[in-house]
From TrEMBL:
Superkingdom of this protein's organism: Eukaryota
A GO molecular-function annotation: SUMO activating enzyme activity
Entry annotated with the keyword Ribonucleoprotein: no
Species this protein is from: Triticum turgidum subsp. durum (Durum wheat)
Key words of the record: Acetylation, Nucleus, Ubl conjugation pathway
Name the record gives this protein: Ubiquitin-like 1-activating enzyme E1A
Record-level GO cellular component terms: cytoplasm; SUMO activating enzyme complex
Upper taxonomic lineage: Eukaryota, Viridiplantae, Streptophyta, Embryophyta, Tracheophyta
Length: 309
C-alpha cells in the first residue's frame, strides 16, 4: 500500500470524531492509510476473529472473510462471535456466522463474505487486497497464496497465524517494505527492509538458525511436513499419529543435524492432542499482536518486524 501523505480534511467529520483517540496516537496520515486498506482473511477461527475485531474497531477500509467450512460445535469454544445456538438454525459457514456481528462493531467498515477456496484463488482476486491473512490452512495453501502475493506488482502484505492449544505462531512477509525510522531530535528517515518468503524462511537449514530458536518452531515444521506428506489438513493429525510423527522428527533432525531433544516428544504430543482446538486467551493475545503488526505495516513504522514470531 502506498505511503502518501494527506490532510485531516480528507477524513470525514464522522471518521475524525470516531477515531479521534487513535489519530492522536498514530496521526492523521496513518488513519487515512488504514481507512483505505482492504484486508482478506482466509480461515475464520478464534485467533483470526480476534484480529478481525481489532482492525474493524480501528477503522480498516474493508474486510473480507473467506471460509466455507460449516460451523461445528468445536468452533464455539474459541470463536466468541458465533452464536451458541447457530447449529440449531440451519447450515451456516464460519464466514457467514461472523460477518454480521463484525459489522456491528463498526458500521463504517465494509465487512463481506468472500465465497471460494483459498487454495484456488487467482492472482486477479489477490490484487483487490493490501493485506492477506491465512490461518487453518495447509502449508501448500499458504505457500500458494504467499507466492501469488509476491507475483503481483502491487505491494501485498502476507501473514499466516496458527494457534494450537496454548501455543501460537505468526509468519510475516512484507516483501520489500519501506518504512520511516524515527531519529532522536530529527526527522524520520526512510528505510527499506527485504523480507523472506514463507518458502525461503522454512527452507533455512536448522543448523543455521539462531541458537535461541524456540522448540515450538521446530515442532511446527515437523507437523507441517507430516501433514503435507500425508495430505492432511491442519488439526487432522491426532495422538494416534505420534509414532509416524516421531519418525518424521528423526528423519528431519538427521537431515538438519539437529538433536531430537530440541523437539521434545511431550511438545509434539501436546500439539497432536490439541487437534483443531484453540485456547481462547491465547487467541486474544495472538489476534492482538497480529492486529498491531498490520497497523505498523500500514502506518509505515513497522520496519523491525521479525518474520516468524
Amino acid at each position: 500500500m502506498g505511503g502518501g501523505g494527506g490532510t485531516e480534511e480528507e477524513l470525514t467529520a464522522q471518521e475524525t470524531a470516531l477515531y479521534d483517540r487513535q489519530i492522536r496516537v498514530w496521526g492523521v496520515d496513518a488513519q487515512k492509510r488504514l481507512s483505505k486498506a482492504h484486508v482478506l482473511v482466509c480461515g475464520v477461527n478464534g485467533t483470526t476473529i480476534e484480529f478481525c475485531k481489532n482492525i474493524v474497531l480501528a477503522g480498516v477500509g474493508s474486510l473480507s472473510l473467506m471460509d466455507d467450512h460449516i460451523v461445528t460445535e468445536d468452533d464455539l469454544s474459541a470463536n466468541f462471535l458465533i452464536p451458541h445456538d447457530i447449529c440449531m438454525h440451519g447450515v451456516s459457514s464460519r464466514a457467514e456466522a461472523c460477518c454480521e456481528s463484525l459489522k456491528d462493531f463498526n458500521p463504517m467498515v465494509r465487512v463481506a463474505v468472500a465465497i471460494g477456496d483459498p487454495s484456488l484463488i487467482d492472482e486477479g482476486f489477490v490484487d483487490r487486497f493490501d493485506i492477506i491473512v491465512v490461518s487453518c490452512a495447509s502449508l501448500k495453501t499458504k505457500l500458494f497464496i504467499n507466492d501469488n502475493c509476491r507475483k503481483r506488482s502491487k505491494h501485498i502484505a502476507f501473514y499466516s497465524v496458527e494457534c494450537k492449544d496454548s501455543c501460537g505462531e505468526i509468519f510475516v512477509d512484507l516483501q520489500n517494505h519501506i518504512y520511516l525510522q524515527k531519529k532522536p531530535g530529527g526527522e524520520p528517515e526512510q528505510q527499506e527492509l527485504s523480507y523472506a518468503s514463507l518458502q525461503e524462511a522454512i527452507s533455512v537449514p536448522w543448523k543455521n538458525l539462531p541458537k535461541k530458536t524456540t522448540k515450538l518452531y521446530y515442532a511446527m515444521r515437523v507437523l507441517e511436513s507430516y501433514e503435507l506428506s500425508e495430505g492432511r489438513e491442519p488439526g487432522e493429525t491426532t495422538l494416534s499419529d505420534l509414532p509416524a510423527v516421531l519418525a518424521q522428527r528423526k528423519d528431519m533432525c538427521d537431515r538438519m543435524s539437529l538433536s531430537e531433544s530440541q523437539i521434545p516428544t511431550a511438545l509434539l504430543e501436546r500439539l497432536l492432542a490439541a487437534g483443531k482446538k484453540e485456547h481462547p486467551p491465547v487467541c486474544a493475545i495472538l489476534g492482538g499482536i497480529l492486529g498491531q503488526l498490520c497497523t505498523w505495516f500500514l502506518d509505515l513504522t513497522g520496519g523491525d518486524q521479525v518474520n516468524i514470531l
